[in-house]
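From the methods appendix. Each design record in this collection lists the tokenized structure first, followed by the designed amino acid sequence. Records were kept in a plain field format so they could be parsed without special tools. The example shown here is representative of the layout used throughout.

RECORD:
FOLD TOKENS (160 positions):
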């Protein structure tokens, strides 16, 4: 005769605890990995930005009242660098001279690749050079301030 071991309550308990322990460990690993790769925030300090939203609406209304327009007149790649030309026009379509323009190029999908941009006037355009701007999707911002303090902000999503 052969001896057979019977399945008792302790065996069932250990099997269930082991099974659910593995499931919980795998889920915990996936949660930690997901949060490390993307924390879920697109905007830093969203609560504070929300509190200041009325001010942002007022600034947009002031910008619309100026009647200015801005457009990217050219994008030229030079190796890893990209030259971005922006033209600002008043409500009559005339090019606006003597603006102080600063901007930023932010990567939508990667951290650590964002760059500040300094613009210089070349002819009727303001030109900025972005170093190491790899191919892909970027958020472009250019803020122009006139000597009178008038402010105009251009935001575009670019595929470089």
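DESIGN:
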């Amino acid at each position: 005769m052969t001896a057979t071991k019977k399945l008792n309550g302790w065996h069932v308990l250990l099997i269930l605890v082991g099974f659910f322990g593995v499931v919980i460990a795998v889920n915990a690993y996936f949660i930690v990995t997901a949060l490390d790769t993307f924390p879920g925030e697109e905007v830093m300090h969203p609560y504070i930005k929300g509190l200041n939203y009325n001010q942002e609406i007022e600034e947009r209304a002031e910008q619309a009242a100026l009647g200015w327009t801005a457009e990217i007149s050219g994008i030229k790649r030079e190796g890893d660098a990209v030259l971005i030309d922006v033209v600002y026009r008043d409500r009559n379509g005339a090019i606006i001279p003597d603006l102080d323009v600063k901007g930023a190029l932010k990567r939508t999908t990667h951290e650590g690749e964002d760059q500040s941009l300094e613009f210089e006037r070349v002819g009727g355009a303001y030109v900025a050079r972005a170093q190491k701007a790899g191919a892909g999707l970027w958020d472009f911002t250019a803020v122009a301030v006139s000597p009178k303090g008038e402010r105009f902000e251009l935001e575009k999503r670019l595929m470089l």
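APPENDIX NOTE: Helices lie at 9-37, 46-51, 53-66.
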